[in-house]
Amino acid sequence: TAIFAGNDMIGFGVLRAAAERNIDVPGELSVIGFDDIELSRYVYPPLTTVGQSIRELGESAAALLLSRIAVPRAGAAEQRIVEPRIVPRESTGPRPDLFNDYR
Predict the structure, then answer these.
(1) 2-96 belongs to which homologous superfamily?
(2) Residue 20: left if φ>0, alpha if ψ -120 to 50, beta else—which one?
(3) H or E, element range at 4
(4) 26-83 pLDDT, tens digit each
(5) What is the C-alpha to C-alpha distance for residues 69 and 64, in angstroms, rounded to an integer?
(6) What pTM was estimated for this model as a whole?
């Protein structure tokens, strides 16, 4: 009942394929992408997506690189997590079978 695309561009392809097959999004199929690129809000239906702060990713990567340059033989590689966020738009809805149970 749903497809999670690896990125928003693949999500656009899923939306197109669904339209070509007369599959109602989000009535019959929910589609979610990843990246939250600008175009995601302008396709039809607007694509629900998972976004993350590119600025925060860049700042973390630069800080880790500078740290590694300053101390080249430091222990294990440091990891940082940039929290993703869901950006809900009109390409997702309730599971069709759950929706039908409440009619």
Answers:
(1) Response regulator (3.40.50.2300)
(2) alpha
(3) strand 2-4
(4) 999 999 999 999 999 999 999 999 998 889 999 998 988 888 888 877 677 778 888 9
(5) 9
(6) 0.78
